[in-house]
Specification:
CATH superfamily of the largest domain: Homing endonucleases
CATH architecture of the largest domain: Roll
Order of helices and strands: HHHHHEEHEEHHHEEHEEH
CATH topology of the largest domain: Endonuclease I-creI
Number of domains: 3
Largest sheet: 4 strands, antiparallel
Structural class: alpha+beta
Helix content: 40-55%
CATH class of the largest domain: Alpha Beta
Number of strands: 8
């Protein structure tokens, strides 16, 4: 048996645009029970009724979505407000500025604060509509729960795939130089080549990254369970054109 507060908490996830499958997987409550609660419990107001029509700038949103999925979170306060927070390393001041610019491009008029932490800053913005724009928000760590794009997000990503890839790389990826050695004419020569890596603990976020690469014609391989590598020359050239190293 589930108490009323538990039932309302589960229904709150559904009103955020989450699928019954993902809510059931996260909470352990069956889809049949959730459907029954929806019919019997006075419904909570659906977020869509009070949400903005969508991001003000879709390309900026795709980039911010990548940052959020990599190094972002949304904090909820007692009075119902929400704060979007993106962690950006001090080593990349250009990334910090790109993040600061993307937030008001997506939600014009919101304030953006930069709070210094050890080795990084938190680029933060308080607005009650952030869960509307990032329905992946939920309790716990992202790699411990399903991460799925809703329909309108998929349309934006399909229209602006490189912006999503750039956001994911800027948050949880890097461009680095690898090297190997080979023997030529009895002499050992060092061969250097550029490579992109993307690292994330969430299988769903990794899949979103690789599915988007596939759609863009970028060759990749899985280095291990948490790392995706892009190393083929033509694919690295594509990544350099549309993403480039952090700065």
């Amino acid at each position: 048996m589930y108490d009323m507060e538990t039932r309302r908490s589960v229904l709150r996830l559904v009103t955020q645009g989450r699928s019954l499958n993902s809510v059931s997987t996260e909470t352990g409550v069956s889809r049949a029970a959730i459907r029954a609660w929806q019919a019997r419990i006075e419904p909570l107001p659906r977020m869509a009724r009070d949400c903005p029509p969508g991001p003000a700038d879709n390309a900026s949103y795709a980039y911010l979505l990548g940052l959020y999925l990599g190094d972002g979170c949304i904090s909820t306060y007692a009075r119902g407000g929400h704060s979007l927070r993106i962690a950006c390393a001090d080593a990349w001041p250009g990334l910090i500025e790109l993040c600061r610019a993307a937030i008001p491009a997506v939600r014009p008029g919101v304030s953006v604060a930069v709070v210094q932490r050890q080795g990084c800053v938190m680029v933060s913005s308080y607005d009650r509509h952030w869960p509307c724009l990032f329905p992946q928000h939920g309790p716990g760590k992202k790699h411990d729960r399903p991460i799925e794009l809703v329909g309108w997000q998929r349309e934006i990503v399909d229209a602006h795939p490189w912006e999503l890839i750039r956001g994911l790389i800027h948050s949880d990826g890097c461009r680095t130089t690898n090297w190997t050695t080979r023997t030529v004419g009895g002499a050992t020569k060092r061969n250097e080549y550029p490579r992109y890596f993307f690292t994330n603990k969430s299988a769903d976020i990794l899949r979103l990254f690789t599915d988007t690469l596939d759609a863009l014609g970028v060759a990749w391989k899985k280095a291990n369970a948490k790392n995706i590598s892009v190393a083929k020359k033509a694919s690295v050239a594509l990544m350099d054109t549309h993403v480039g190293p952090k700065h």
